[in-house]
Amino acid sequence: APPAGQPAPATGGRISTPARATPTPTPTPTPPAKPCANGADDDNDGQTDLEDPGCADGNDASETGEVPVGQECVENHSGIGMGDSTTGLGAGINRCGLFTKVRIDAAPGVQSCEIFTGGTGWTCGPSGKYGVATGPAVEIADVNLTLTGPADCNRKVTIALYRPNGEVAELYGPIARCKTGGGTEKAACENGKDDDGDGMIDDHFADGALDPDPGCTSTTDTSESSETPAPASCKIELGVWNEDGDIAGATAEGCGGLRGFWYHAPGTVTECGHKFGAGALLDCQKVRETGGTMFDGLVFDKLSVYTALDKVADCRPMTLTLIREDFSVWFKRARLEGC
Question: Where is the composition biased (Low complexity) (predicted)?
Fold first, then answer.
């Protein structure tokens, strides 16, 4: 028997004393690529690696960082569609919660873009194959994109919304009216027609919209009929501000909390301004015969709107559209006295 405390020698086993003095080092295995750089759709959402908004960068350990947008965003026709050209797309982001950055991924890639938020401070341009826009926090925006080639109708588009709290929300879906030869059908709010028979046509950002419809929330909106005439409690006055008759505008008082406005003037707008109560005059965005903006927060004070015209106001109708606290729309429409 072996001495006490010593193990018995192995007999008939697989282990034998090797000839070398030390073991050969085992090669360190190559670590697997991280989910955001492995060429795979790890979360099965149809997006791979950095095209997935859930990936912050290639070192991110998960593709699942994004969240879907709320139902209100979807119900208000947010999404993207094709215009007359196969390389031109228009995105509408409506009531989707606050965001300070938008990243749009559309194949084959974005060559240029412009964004309209109703306010100032936003810029949009290509970044790699994406269209990226940044600016102060807003809840509504329209984005026009020019692609590097004809849109790939078989590939869905991702619209990523980056929130002030760091959260990333996404809209992910097909290109509406996408056709290889160019879209022929347009949404009701950019088709050049008075779809609801109220004498007003398309969204105020739509090409050629000279008398826009308050029922349109964006150029991709499929209905012109969501507006409501302002009640008597919301006192709106429309007219001209000066004796020369080339500064037109409006006031609105007692209309509750407002998030923004747009005003269709009796002429082509060269400058736009607005103020709350007796406050300072602030800028607003001008588009052909309209001026407007979205506010940084809810405003309850009296709203005054001023638009400088390229000539004396004429008899075309004026429309003041108010975007309310719940994003519903009130409006008043009238002509100058004597028209």
Answer: 7-23, 217-228
